[in-house]
Amino acid sequence: MEPVKVGLLGLGIVGGGTISVLRRNATEIARRAGRGIIITHASARDLKKPREFSLDGIELLGDPLELVNHPEVEIVAELIGGTELARELVMQAISNGKHVVTANKALIAIHGNEIFEAATRKGVIVAFEAAVAGGIPIIKAIREGLAGNSISSVAGIINGTTNFILTAMREQARSFEDVLAEAQSLGYAEANPTFDVEGIDAAHKLTILAAIAFGIPLQFEKVFTEGITQITIEDIGFAERFGYRIRHLGIARRTSEGVELRVHPTLIPERRLIANVDGVRNAVLVIGDAVGPTIYYGAGAGADPTASAVVADLVDIVRAFTTDPGNRVPHLAFQSDALSYEEILPMEEISTAYYLRMQALDRPGVLADVTRILGESGISIEAILQREPVEGASFVPIIILTQSVQEKYMNQAIEKLEALPNINGRIMRIRMDPLA
Ligand code: NDP
Ligand code: HSE
């Protein structure tokens, strides 16, 4: 049988990885798919740019729309990124009756509802395994492997760049900027790395995970999002003294009050598996009522790991060519007319324990003021640490771990603490989670 012809939009990190994996494993991929899968056409911004991989046998097109409209292309792989051009190209591919594979989490999180509706109408597949957690087949695991469960939570490290940075800050005491530059040079970071370090990329991914886990629509705008730019090496050290690691987590949890959707740095007990996931690795804990807790671990970014997911999607699509579109696995795991519209809780309504770090004047009565304000806000202290003053410094760091309290009460307490004349500057607050 003729090989399946794929048009590749984007020849960057993931595009290059996809070409390389498809070539390297061509025979095994054909044995799995039942047909060979080859890239016949590709498009990029600068076709003259030198590439580290061979483009032999691939027709290069300057206009990506030409690729999407090309009659020979059967599957379009969108590996450009961004949400405007990518949306236009994907919608055009669907309208042309072509199946689509994408690694673009921003596109799916923001325009996924519209894209999947159009794809379902047209009877084509839009596959997006590479969009979440790089090479870990987490979409397939939740959507298909855990289809018998009622899932109560999905939580984990879902951005490789931030985990790479936090790991290097802890192990090598390197500066944030230095490690970010290395993550960029290794191809882990987004084109705009603010998306990584401010948590936006993780929020895109969490939006997708929550939709397929709980059967809710994609609701990126409702995810509470905080990045890692305020985390210092000091915080990492203090957390360790209490037996915790700081990880940047995405947490989607179903409670009796509503659904929590949040991305933020989190102190987790160091004995947890996820606390020990280092570098660019991702790990996701999924809890189902039947299966109990399950953990998925692997490379969260990079050329080959991401290509692993892109190629798996291509194989899935080829296998599904002749299936009845009405009986395929639904894009977002649940049938599109069976979504539930549970309330997404605002962060103020969510309860967590907290790590607080403040700079206090080394003077009698200061600690009493701090504990009084926390007590008045109904916040119980779990542990407290006051460091001895460094010679010549008038302020000392005080670290407090609290018990669980609603975020709105913590906000009120922090406002009062920051107004104390003996407290200098802003109070650092990091949420805690037992991940149990
Ligand atoms: P790169 O920046 O390395 O590659 C982007 C590619 O798209 C480049 O080849 C670029 O062309 C091309 N491109 C950009 N704009 C246009 C345009 N206007 N017209 C035509 N081509 C264009 O990105 P990545 O490969 O890292 O990421 C691609 C997608 O995969 C993104 O959605 C990203 O979020 C996602 N992803 C990335 C992962 C990673 O580890 N890097 C992991 C998982 C997902 P040119 O080369 O000429 O500049
Ligand atoms: N920039 C992303 C990350 C790529 O670091 O996780 C993988 O989605």
Task: Write a brief structural summary.
The protein has helices at 13-24, 26-33, 64-68, 84-95, 105-122, 138-145, 160-172, 176-185, 194-197, 200-214, 233-241, 303-319, 366-376, 407-419; strands at 4-9, 37-43, 59-61, 75-78, 99-102, 126-127, 151-157, 224-225, 244-254, 259-269, 281-288, 292-299, 351-361, 381-386, 395-402, 405-406, 423-432.
Question: Could you name the key traits of this structure?
Answer:
Alpha-Beta Plaits, binds NADPH dihydro-nicotinamide-adenine-dinucleotide phosphate, binds L-homoserine, 436 residues, 17 strands, alpha/beta, single chain
Contiguous low-pLDDT stretches (5 residues minimum) are none
What can be said about the biggest beta sheet?
Answer: 11 strands, mixed
Tell me the fraction of residues in β-strands, as a range: 25-35%
Total E-strand runs: 17
